[in-house]
Amino acid sequence: MALLRVVDRDGVEHEVDAKPGLKVMETLRELDYGVAAICGGMCSCATCHVYVDPEWVAKLPAAMSDERELLTELSHHESNSRLSCQLEFTNELAGLRVTIAPDE
Q: Is the whole model's pTM more than 0.90, yes or no?
């Protein structure tokens, strides 16, 4: 397990254990922080939308076209928006900090 830092919609930061090899969404949906992940990781619903802390953005693989298209349709889209279902958590990402985006 490795550390994942999550800021919930109330602005409270939580440190949680995340299993390398799983998508960030898989860890978040098990918690009660507002990530519904309705589509189960198929990159089709954006209910796993998070903001990645700026210091981590460059350490992540670039978003694929389907993720970018879905994100740009969101009213709360920011330059550091990502779908957590598209982010594989690795040991190199230990300490990653994400903020749960507002509900659409």
A: yes
Q: What is the pLDDT of residues 29-63, one digit of tens each?
A: 988 877 888 888 888 899 999 999 999 999 999 99
Q: Please write the tens of the pLDDT for every residue from 63-91.
A: 999 999 999 999 999 999 999 999 999 99
3-state secondary structure the chain: CEEEEEECCCCCEEEEEECCCCEHHHHHCCCCCCCCCCCCCCCCCCCCEEEECHHHHCCCCCCCHHHHHHHHCCCCCCCCEEEHHHCECCHHHCCEEEEECCCC
Q: What kind of architecture, by CATH, is found in domain 2-100?
A: Roll (3.10)
What are the sequence ranges of the domains in the chain? 2-100
